[in-house]
């Protein structure tokens, strides 16, 4: 193996590292941060005091991370589990103290045939393992979204309503 890149990612030890799509790397460090990197450039990161206000920064630390391409799964030293959108780090799912103690690893259920059976109608499934000798399955509910045809219909309705209101306000507008 040949080293191709070296940079300082965290202050202190790195707890976990995961390879993501598009040559991105996710790191969880003892400095209470989780970071997404493209080469040696920080793309985005999470810090407890910014992401979860009101929870003491020193009481929690990211311990394990996995990036499915769409989602980022995280486990903490206090047993909490979270799922974020990978590119924006917006939190979609969070269970405080899902385990009694340190989450040692997290993994997304693969999108194979048996994996899809576990998913059911859910968008993603994350397995978490902890020092409490338990393995838990976390299911991310499918987010609701409007069908494209309905969105286009609403836009067309807004345009027609605007034209009618302008015609009422200014007779002879058209």
UniProtKB/TrEMBL annotation:
Its main location: endoplasmic reticulum. It is a single-pass membrane protein. Pfam families: WD40. One of its GO terms (biological process) is regulation of COPII vesicle coating. The chain crosses the membrane at residues 146-170. GO terms for cellular component: endoplasmic reticulum membrane. It comes from the Eukaryota. GO terms for molecular function: guanyl-nucleotide exchange factor activity. Keywords: Endoplasmic reticulum, ER-Golgi transport, Membrane, Protein transport, Repeat, Transmembrane, Transmembrane helix, Transport, WD repeat. It is found in: Endoplasmic reticulum membrane. This is PREB protein. The gene is Preb.
